[in-house]
Amino acid sequence: MTDSAERLVWCKDTIAGGVTQHGVGGTGRPVLFLHGWGLSGRSYEPALRRLLAAGRRVYAPSLPGFGGTAPLAADDLSLASYAAWVADYVRDAGIETPVDVVGHSFGGGVGVRVAYDAPDLVGRLILVNAIGGSAWRDGRGVVRPMAERPLWDWGFQLRNEVRPSKRSALAMPRIVREAVPNLARNPGVVWRVASMARAADLATELATLRRRRLPVTVTWSDRDTVIPFSSFAALRTALGDPHSVIVSGGHGWLIDDAGLFGHVLPDLFAERDDESVRRPAA
Q1: Is Hydrolase among the key words of this record (predicted)?
Q2: Which of 10, 87, 98, 178 could pair with 118 in a Cys bridge, judged by C-beta atoms 3.0 to 4.6 Å apart?
Q3: Whole-model pTM?
Q4: How far lies 225's CA from each of 34, 77, 100, 200, 212, in Å?
Q5: Which of 92, 39, 90, 46 is nearest to 63 (CA)?
Q6: Element containing residue 124 per DSSP (H, E)
Q7: Which CATH number covers residue 247?
Q8: Alpha carbons within 13 A on the beta-carbon side of 162
Q9: Beta strand 99-104 with 30-34: parallel, antiparallel or unpaired?
Protein backbone atom coordinates (compact mmCIF):
# COMPACT_ATOMS: atom_id res chain seq x y z
CA MET A 1 0.00 0.00 0.00
CA THR A 2 1.28 3.45 -0.89
CA ASP A 3 1.76 5.81 2.03
CA SER A 4 -0.44 8.93 1.86
CA ALA A 5 2.71 11.08 1.84
CA GLU A 6 3.63 9.47 -1.49
CA ARG A 7 0.33 10.18 -3.26
CA LEU A 8 -0.68 13.13 -5.37
CA VAL A 9 -4.23 14.42 -5.01
CA TRP A 10 -5.63 15.77 -8.27
CA CYS A 11 -8.23 18.46 -7.86
CA LYS A 12 -9.95 21.40 -9.53
CA ASP A 13 -9.82 24.78 -7.79
CA THR A 14 -10.29 28.43 -8.63
CA ILE A 15 -6.70 29.65 -8.59
CA ALA A 16 -4.82 32.27 -10.59
CA GLY A 17 -7.99 33.88 -11.85
CA GLY A 18 -9.81 30.81 -13.15
CA VAL A 19 -10.45 27.09 -12.97
CA THR A 20 -7.19 25.21 -12.45
CA GLN A 21 -6.54 21.49 -12.43
CA HIS A 22 -3.54 20.59 -10.34
CA GLY A 23 -1.90 17.84 -8.35
CA VAL A 24 -0.65 18.42 -4.80
CA GLY A 25 0.93 16.01 -2.37
CA GLY A 26 3.80 15.16 -0.09
CA THR A 27 5.55 16.96 2.71
CA GLY A 28 8.79 18.86 3.05
CA ARG A 29 10.28 21.61 0.91
CA PRO A 30 8.05 22.43 -2.06
CA VAL A 31 8.76 21.69 -5.72
CA LEU A 32 6.78 23.23 -8.56
CA PHE A 33 6.60 20.98 -11.63
CA LEU A 34 5.71 22.45 -15.06
CA HIS A 35 4.72 19.94 -17.73
CA GLY A 36 5.47 19.73 -21.43
CA TRP A 37 3.41 20.74 -24.45
CA GLY A 38 0.10 18.94 -24.98
CA LEU A 39 0.16 17.16 -21.64
CA SER A 40 -0.50 17.82 -17.95
CA GLY A 41 1.09 16.83 -14.66
CA ARG A 42 -0.87 13.56 -14.65
CA SER A 43 1.26 12.25 -17.52
CA TYR A 44 4.28 12.43 -15.21
CA GLU A 45 2.69 10.97 -12.09
CA PRO A 46 5.10 8.00 -11.64
CA ALA A 47 8.07 10.39 -11.87
CA LEU A 48 6.44 12.90 -9.53
CA ARG A 49 5.94 10.16 -6.97
CA ARG A 50 9.73 9.87 -6.87
CA LEU A 51 9.86 13.48 -5.69
CA LEU A 52 7.31 12.66 -3.00
CA ALA A 53 9.37 9.67 -1.90
CA ALA A 54 12.42 11.94 -1.68
CA GLY A 55 10.59 13.99 0.95
CA ARG A 56 9.35 16.88 -1.16
CA ARG A 57 5.95 18.54 -1.37
CA VAL A 58 4.91 18.62 -5.02
CA TYR A 59 2.70 21.10 -6.86
CA ALA A 60 1.91 20.12 -10.45
CA PRO A 61 -0.56 22.52 -12.10
CA SER A 62 -1.94 21.99 -15.57
CA LEU A 63 -0.87 25.07 -17.50
CA PRO A 64 -3.62 27.21 -19.08
CA GLY A 65 -5.31 25.47 -22.00
CA PHE A 66 -4.11 22.02 -20.92
CA GLY A 67 -5.47 19.35 -18.61
CA GLY A 68 -8.74 21.16 -17.94
CA THR A 69 -7.22 24.47 -16.75
CA ALA A 70 -8.93 27.53 -18.22
CA PRO A 71 -6.98 28.89 -21.23
CA LEU A 72 -5.38 32.30 -21.43
CA ALA A 73 -6.93 34.92 -23.67
CA ALA A 74 -6.45 33.97 -27.33
CA ASP A 75 -4.57 37.21 -28.02
CA ASP A 76 -2.23 36.77 -25.04
CA LEU A 77 -0.36 33.53 -25.73
CA SER A 78 3.30 34.05 -24.92
CA LEU A 79 5.89 32.63 -22.55
CA ALA A 80 5.61 35.86 -20.57
CA SER A 81 1.85 35.43 -20.11
CA TYR A 82 2.26 31.80 -19.09
CA ALA A 83 4.95 32.85 -16.61
CA ALA A 84 2.65 35.52 -15.16
CA TRP A 85 -0.03 32.84 -14.70
CA VAL A 86 2.46 30.57 -12.90
CA ALA A 87 3.49 33.43 -10.61
CA ASP A 88 -0.17 33.99 -9.73
CA TYR A 89 -0.59 30.25 -9.11
CA VAL A 90 2.38 30.17 -6.73
CA ARG A 91 1.03 33.08 -4.73
CA ASP A 92 -2.62 31.95 -4.72
CA ALA A 93 -1.73 28.36 -3.77
CA GLY A 94 0.31 29.65 -0.83
CA ILE A 95 3.51 27.92 -1.95
CA GLU A 96 6.51 28.75 0.22
CA THR A 97 9.01 30.77 -1.79
CA PRO A 98 11.60 30.80 -3.16
CA VAL A 99 10.55 27.47 -4.64
CA ASP A 100 12.46 24.88 -6.66
CA VAL A 101 11.02 24.81 -10.19
CA VAL A 102 11.31 21.77 -12.46
CA GLY A 103 10.21 22.30 -16.06
CA HIS A 104 10.08 19.73 -18.86
CA SER A 105 10.18 20.84 -22.51
CA PHE A 106 7.66 23.70 -22.90
CA GLY A 107 7.37 23.84 -19.11
CA GLY A 108 11.11 24.48 -18.93
CA GLY A 109 10.73 27.55 -21.12
CA VAL A 110 7.91 28.78 -18.91
CA GLY A 111 10.12 28.17 -15.86
CA VAL A 112 12.88 30.31 -17.36
CA ARG A 113 10.45 33.19 -17.85
CA VAL A 114 9.11 32.83 -14.30
CA ALA A 115 12.64 33.06 -12.91
CA TYR A 116 13.40 36.02 -15.20
CA ASP A 117 10.20 37.98 -14.49
CA ALA A 118 9.70 37.09 -10.81
CA PRO A 119 13.14 36.35 -9.34
CA ASP A 120 11.80 36.40 -5.79
CA LEU A 121 9.69 33.32 -6.47
CA VAL A 122 12.36 30.91 -7.77
CA GLY A 123 15.19 29.53 -5.66
CA ARG A 124 16.45 26.86 -8.07
CA LEU A 125 15.63 26.01 -11.67
CA ILE A 126 15.89 22.53 -13.19
CA LEU A 127 15.44 22.44 -16.95
CA VAL A 128 14.62 18.99 -18.33
CA ASN A 129 14.98 18.81 -22.14
CA ALA A 130 13.73 22.38 -22.16
CA ILE A 131 12.90 24.69 -25.04
CA GLY A 132 14.68 28.03 -25.26
CA GLY A 133 18.04 27.19 -26.83
CA SER A 134 18.85 29.54 -29.67
CA ALA A 135 20.45 27.01 -32.04
CA TRP A 136 19.21 24.32 -34.41
CA ARG A 137 21.23 22.16 -36.82
CA ASP A 138 19.54 21.71 -40.19
CA GLY A 139 19.65 18.65 -42.45
CA ARG A 140 22.99 19.73 -43.91
CA GLY A 141 24.55 20.03 -40.45
CA VAL A 142 24.55 23.83 -40.47
CA VAL A 143 23.79 25.48 -37.11
CA ARG A 144 21.02 28.05 -37.59
CA PRO A 145 18.79 30.16 -35.32
CA MET A 146 15.99 28.16 -33.71
CA ALA A 147 13.40 30.53 -35.20
CA GLU A 148 14.35 29.20 -38.66
CA ARG A 149 13.47 25.61 -37.78
CA PRO A 150 10.51 24.62 -39.98
CA LEU A 151 7.34 23.53 -38.23
CA TRP A 152 7.29 20.34 -40.32
CA ASP A 153 10.73 19.34 -38.95
CA TRP A 154 9.65 19.90 -35.36
CA GLY A 155 6.45 17.94 -35.97
CA PHE A 156 8.30 15.09 -37.68
CA GLN A 157 10.70 14.69 -34.75
CA LEU A 158 7.83 14.89 -32.26
CA ARG A 159 6.04 12.11 -34.16
CA ASN A 160 9.16 9.94 -33.91
CA GLU A 161 9.27 10.56 -30.15
CA VAL A 162 5.82 9.11 -29.55
CA ARG A 163 6.42 5.87 -31.44
CA PRO A 164 5.96 2.99 -28.98
CA SER A 165 9.02 1.26 -27.57
CA LYS A 166 9.45 -1.40 -24.92
CA ARG A 167 10.19 1.25 -22.32
CA SER A 168 7.42 3.66 -23.38
CA ALA A 169 4.63 1.10 -23.78
CA LEU A 170 3.35 1.65 -20.24
CA ALA A 171 3.63 5.43 -20.52
CA MET A 172 1.78 5.73 -23.83
CA PRO A 173 -1.75 5.35 -22.39
CA ARG A 174 -1.07 8.22 -19.96
CA ILE A 175 0.17 10.42 -22.81
CA VAL A 176 -2.80 9.65 -25.03
CA ARG A 177 -5.24 10.13 -22.14
CA GLU A 178 -3.99 13.69 -21.66
CA ALA A 179 -3.07 14.76 -25.19
CA VAL A 180 -6.30 13.79 -26.97
CA PRO A 181 -8.67 15.75 -24.67
CA ASN A 182 -6.34 18.76 -24.81
CA LEU A 183 -6.52 18.76 -28.59
CA ALA A 184 -10.30 18.33 -28.50
CA ARG A 185 -10.94 21.07 -25.95
CA ASN A 186 -8.58 23.77 -27.20
CA PRO A 187 -7.11 22.85 -30.60
CA GLY A 188 -6.28 26.45 -31.50
CA VAL A 189 -4.47 27.07 -28.22
CA VAL A 190 -2.56 23.79 -28.44
CA TRP A 191 -1.22 24.51 -31.92
CA ARG A 192 -0.42 28.16 -31.27
CA VAL A 193 1.54 27.16 -28.17
CA ALA A 194 3.34 24.55 -30.27
CA SER A 195 4.39 27.22 -32.76
CA MET A 196 5.57 29.47 -29.93
CA ALA A 197 7.54 26.66 -28.28
CA ARG A 198 9.17 25.59 -31.55
CA ALA A 199 10.78 28.99 -32.14
CA ALA A 200 11.49 30.00 -28.53
CA ASP A 201 14.84 31.75 -28.05
CA LEU A 202 15.51 32.57 -24.40
CA ALA A 203 19.18 33.54 -24.69
CA THR A 204 18.59 36.98 -23.18
CA GLU A 205 16.61 35.62 -20.23
CA LEU A 206 19.14 32.84 -19.61
CA ALA A 207 22.04 35.31 -19.65
CA THR A 208 20.21 37.39 -17.05
CA LEU A 209 19.75 34.34 -14.81
CA ARG A 210 23.47 33.71 -15.17
CA ARG A 211 24.28 37.24 -13.98
CA ARG A 212 21.92 36.79 -11.04
CA ARG A 213 23.72 33.53 -10.14
CA LEU A 214 20.50 31.57 -9.92
CA PRO A 215 21.30 27.87 -9.33
CA VAL A 216 20.32 26.10 -12.56
CA THR A 217 20.64 22.48 -13.64
CA VAL A 218 20.29 21.65 -17.33
CA THR A 219 19.28 18.11 -18.24
CA TRP A 220 19.17 16.50 -21.67
CA SER A 221 18.81 12.96 -23.03
CA ASP A 222 21.02 11.48 -25.71
CA ARG A 223 18.23 10.37 -28.06
CA ASP A 224 16.19 13.57 -27.99
CA THR A 225 15.47 14.85 -31.49
CA VAL A 226 12.74 17.33 -30.47
CA ILE A 227 15.30 19.35 -28.49
CA PRO A 228 18.55 18.62 -30.36
CA PHE A 229 22.00 18.69 -28.82
CA SER A 230 22.72 22.06 -30.45
CA SER A 231 19.81 23.58 -28.52
CA PHE A 232 20.98 21.97 -25.26
CA ALA A 233 24.48 23.33 -25.90
CA ALA A 234 23.08 26.82 -26.54
CA LEU A 235 21.22 26.69 -23.21
CA ARG A 236 24.42 25.75 -21.40
CA THR A 237 26.41 28.47 -23.12
CA ALA A 238 23.86 31.16 -22.29
CA LEU A 239 23.87 30.05 -18.65
CA GLY A 240 27.66 30.00 -18.41
CA ASP A 241 28.26 26.24 -18.29
CA PRO A 242 25.85 25.30 -15.48
CA HIS A 243 25.59 22.00 -13.63
CA SER A 244 24.38 19.56 -16.31
CA VAL A 245 23.14 15.99 -16.43
CA ILE A 246 22.88 13.80 -19.54
CA VAL A 247 20.75 10.66 -19.40
CA SER A 248 19.93 7.88 -21.83
CA GLY A 249 16.54 8.26 -23.49
CA GLY A 250 14.29 10.30 -25.72
CA HIS A 251 12.56 13.61 -25.21
CA GLY A 252 10.06 12.22 -22.70
CA TRP A 253 12.49 10.05 -20.76
CA LEU A 254 11.10 10.99 -17.35
CA ILE A 255 7.64 9.86 -18.52
CA ASP A 256 8.98 6.65 -20.06
CA ASP A 257 11.24 5.70 -17.16
CA ALA A 258 10.27 7.01 -13.72
CA GLY A 259 12.98 4.83 -12.19
CA LEU A 260 15.65 6.71 -14.13
CA PHE A 261 14.17 10.01 -12.97
CA GLY A 262 14.37 8.78 -9.38
CA HIS A 263 17.95 7.64 -9.94
CA VAL A 264 19.13 11.07 -11.11
CA LEU A 265 17.23 13.12 -8.51
CA PRO A 266 20.35 13.69 -6.37
CA ASP A 267 22.19 14.97 -9.44
CA LEU A 268 19.31 17.19 -10.52
CA PHE A 269 19.22 18.99 -7.18
CA ALA A 270 22.98 18.94 -6.57
CA GLU A 271 25.01 22.08 -6.09
CA ARG A 272 27.43 22.96 -8.88
CA ASP A 273 30.74 21.16 -8.46
CA ASP A 274 33.92 20.77 -10.47
CA GLU A 275 32.32 18.35 -12.92
CA SER A 276 30.10 20.37 -15.24
CA VAL A 277 28.41 17.54 -17.12
CA ARG A 278 27.47 14.48 -15.13
CA ARG A 279 26.27 11.21 -16.61
CA PRO A 280 24.34 8.83 -14.32
CA ALA A 281 25.70 5.34 -13.97
CA ALA A 282 24.04 2.79 -16.22
Answers
A1: yes
A2: 87
A3: 0.86
A4: 21, 25, 27, 16, 31
A5: 39
A6: strand 122-128
A7: 3.40.50.1820
A8: 14
A9: parallel
